[in-house]
Amino acid sequence: MGRRIAYGFLILSVTPILVGYSWLVIATFSFRTEGLLPRNAEGGIGGFTLSNWSFVTDAAIWNAMLNSFLIAVTMVIGVGVASTAGGYALSRFKFAGRKAFLTGTLVLHAFKAEMLLIAIFFVLRWLGGIPVIGSFIGFNSVGGVALVMIALELPLGIWLMKGFFDNLPWDMERAALIDGASRFRVWWQIMLPQVRPGLAALSLFTFIAGWNAYLVPFTFTIGTKVANMPVFLSQLISDTAPTNWNLVAAVGMFQMIPLIIFFIFTQELLLNIYAGGSKGT
Amino acid sequence: MTEKQLEQQSEELARAAVGAPGSTRRTLGRRVRSTVSAYGFMAPAIVLVLMFFVVPGILLLILSFTNLASVNFGDPWNFIGFANFERLFTDRFFPKILRNTVFYVFTTLILFNLGLALVLALVTTSIPRRSGFFFRLVWLLPRLTPSVVYILMWRRIGQAEPFGIYNQLMPEFLGASGGNLFLGGSPWAFVILTNGFIGASFGMIIFTSALLSIPEDLLTAAKVDGASAWRIIRDIKLPLIKWPLLFIATYQTLSLLTSFEYILLLTQGGPGLFTTEVWALTAYKRAFATYAGNSQWAFGATWAVVLVAVALLFAILYVKLFKFKELIEEPRIDNL
Fold it and tell me: For chain A, how many structural domains are there in total?
């Protein structure tokens, strides 16, 4: 009895989610939909079509896909390097400013950086004015978007990696240092291999954040050349012209392919990293 | 002697044994070298934090005292004192935006981020492990979905007839009016649902791990004594997850206060004038959406600065409250 209520409640609670995804899948392969029902041109049920997927021959979408991928990969590398290096120093060294930095990033982790976007706009414009590299990291560039996103994920990354380093025993490291290895070599050859699982989790989390990024790329890019997938998709949903919802659904589905793969193969890990202090509403 | 002191002593003994100078015999040269390499490791993080947190924070404050907008972008910055703040607090829609913000934050927090999250955690931990895991995983889906795609689904659910799913499946007395629901009948319901379905999963995961760490024999003992399920929840489970509850409450209040991405995608603050517009969205729209071709960066920054001040207070309170201080204690080992 109690168990039946429990399952009833849970099934009811996930209904909106399942309905939303069902629509996405149905719409992707339909001529048009009314509610959850696929309709053909005559208004009857049916109208299976693959024409919504014809966008895969469109160069614009591959450009957006490439931008998404570049943002996500740059983020994985940037967050990975800055967090493992910073986390190591914070875990192992005593230095002036250590406490201030740790408290600061802890506050920043709770603090939501979306509020700073207005001012970051000016920082990016300034970065864009730097000769030679400016056009790669300034306003309206993939690099600029990636840089901002790296910074936003950094407080979480540093704390996560510091935690992993804190848990490592000191013996091997000490032996290497006594043998005359440099700090950098110890970090690279001895410490990094030991925190690989943590780094993998952080990378997965960062990749998803980068792949899904909407607000930052939307705010700091103009037009279609530097648009990533979410921005490209939002441009398809126009308020002035009629929207082809089935095309939009197919593009959305397309964008979700890597996420679905992660979802199927890393379930346990995903539930764990999102508990590890995700930023999210 | 405490355990810690013992550990420290053995550490020093170990150092002496290998002939390495420990913290008791540190030379200036060593300390300098250690500091230099520490800053070397810290450099990328420090640069990024300065560039994208510290500088923008200061810049935002300065901006709020200017009248910078896209119409006078080329000119030198013109300082106008507290005029922006005066304009903000006397804005005709200020009371409405404030009410919206408070309503949105607390309704979503209580119904979903705390309420539903807690119920989900309690229910999924009371059924067999695999099933509970499965439902929690489904609840994680919205969080994994790109915001644009996620809102797309909700837009189709709330669309007018004949396209909308809710209008097709639900009878009239449950609110299916036939019209567009998120830009017509019940925009707030949709704003809260879309955010709540994302927000609930975070609390759910945190509460679940807290509930699973309650010793089994405690629950068994209560059951043997004939306690009802409700009494077990009220007198054992809830008191034991008091801290996670408080953590989620403060953390999510801050999140909800400052996030606006889903509202921007769903209603853009509409329908009509400021119907679902919250403080954070106002700041963003003033600065980046153009009103008659003019982006009012300075005025947007003013809205943002007030929110940043509130958010900072919250963040500091939250760091203090949860005694994170222990986490920043000195590292036991720094140099040889």
Answer: 2
H or E, element range at B284: helix B279-288
Q: Which domain holds residue A18?
A: 2-39
Residues in chain A with CB shorter than 8 Å from the CB of B307 are: 115
> Looking at CA atoms only, how far is residue B336 from chain A in angstroms?
8
pTM of the model: 0.86
- Mean pLDDT for chain A? 85
Residue A90 lies in a domain: yes
| Unique residue bearing structure tokens 């009016």 | B177
**b/e map of A24-52 (b: 16 or more CB within 10 Å)?**
bebbbbbbbbbbebbbeeeeeeebebeeb
Across the range A48-61, mean pLDDT stands at 81
Neighbours of B323 (CB within 10 A): 9
Q: Are residues A30 and A145 located together in one domain of the fold?
A: no
- Alpha-carbon distance values, B7 to A99, A251, B3, B327 (Å): 22, 58, 6, 18
The CA angle A106-A111-A114, to the nearest 5 degrees, is: 135
How far from each other are the two terminal CA atoms of chain B, in whole angstroms? 25
Interatomic CA distance for residues B91 and A36, integer angstroms: 44
Shared-domain flag, residues A87 and A173: yes
**Residue A194 within any structural domain of the chain:** yes
Residue in the structure block whose two tokens are 């997927």? A53
**Dihedral over Cα of A248, A250, A253, A254: its sign:** negative
Residue B261 contacts residue B269 (beta carbons within 8 Å): no
Helix (H) or strand (E) holding A34: strand A32-34
Q: Residue A210's pLDDT is what?
A: 92
Which residue of chain A has the CA closest to B21? A178
CB-based contact B284 A117, cutoff 8 Å: yes
Residue A63 lies in a domain: yes
Does residue B21 carry a pLDDT above 50?
Answer: no
Single-letter amino acid code for the residue at B200: A
Cβ of B49 within 8 Å of Cβ of A90? The answer is no
3-state helix, strand, coil in chain A (%, to 5): 75, 5, 25
Residue from A154, A228, A281 to probe the interface with B (highest B Cβ count within 10 Å): A281
ipTM score above 0.95 = no
